[in-house]
Amino acid sequence: MIDRMELSAKALLLREKYGEDSSSPVNIFSMVSSKDNLTIVFYPMGKNISGMCLKNEPSNIIAINSSMTLGRQRFSMAHELYHLEYDDNMRSICGVQIGSGNETEKKADIFASYFIMPSVAVQRLKQSGSVSIEDVIWLEQTYGMSHQATLIRLKEEKAITDGQFRNWQTTSVSKLAKSLGYDSKLYQPSPEDEQYKTLGRYIAQANLALEEGLISDGKYEELMLDAYRPDLVYGDDGGYIND
Asked: What's the farthest any 2 CA atoms get from each other in the chain?
């Protein structure tokens, strides 16, 4: 049986480890980019894979499917953090359906939900009374979690009914969010020209090698282009994946 309280506690501990508090929204991509032994790769991986984690100290790699919505990319990043921090397996490849797969995958999904959206946020919403679709959109916009992951979380914590869950799954959420004054980018994939990106250790190590004269300018440029970072070669800061 999966212990949800334990996973919530682990999510809070990891937030603390990264210098985050227990209740605020997190800028997850910026947060993990500062981790010394982690490289993050954004790459369009099709419809069947949301992300993967490869552990190989001292350099670990997390890959995120950038053809998915921004909200799902953020959720996938938190999911892969569970594998990185708490899974003994050296490699994980994760599907797209939340709550599917083996017990470890289910734990990673629950952990991700708690990491992105701490329990206090859901409890406050429940205490406010009957939950509307506008409340759901406010919550997912505030914490940057995908619509599907938010609905699953609210259903599991009995903040919404099964009927609301089914009805709101088919809501044109992007259109409704815009009508409420929100930016709809949470519900959209990265633009095609921004779907390739590398952050973290790989970039930092290449820059260090260049500064110490261990590689030539030409080799550095080759490494950056291989990492989908033409902005660091040509001085173009376009195409950066924002959290």
From this structure: 63
Buried b (16+ CB within 10 A) or exposed e, 28-61: bbebbbebeebbbbbbebeeebbbbbbbeeeebb
Mean pLDDT lowest among 28-37, 40-49, 210-219: 28-37
Confidence tier at 240 by pLDDT (50, 70, 90): very low
- Following CA atoms 29, 35, 36, 40 in sequence, which dihedral angle do they give, to the nearest 10 degrees? -30
Could you tell me whether strands 197-200 and 51-54 are parallel, antiparallel, or unpaired per DSSP bridges?
Answer: unpaired
Structure pTM? 0.91
**Separation of alpha carbons 57 and 78, rounded Å:** 20
Q: Which pairs count as long-range contacts for 182-185, CB under 8 Å and 24+ apart, including other chains? A: 182/137, 182/141, 185/70
| Gap between the Cα atoms of 153 and 49, Å rounded | 21
Q: CA 243 to CA 197: how far, in whole Å?
A: 13
Token output for 136: 């759901």
**CA distance linking residue 135 with residue 127, whole number of Å:** 12
pLDDT at residue 241 above 50? no
Pull the structure tokens for residue 7: 């996973």
Given a contact cutoff of 8 angstroms between Cβ atoms, the answer to whether 66 and 74 are in contact is no
**pLDDT tens-digit profile of 94-123?**
989 998 889 999 999 999 999 999 999 999
Region label for 117, one of left (φ > 0), alpha (ψ between -120 and 50) or beta (otherwise):
beta
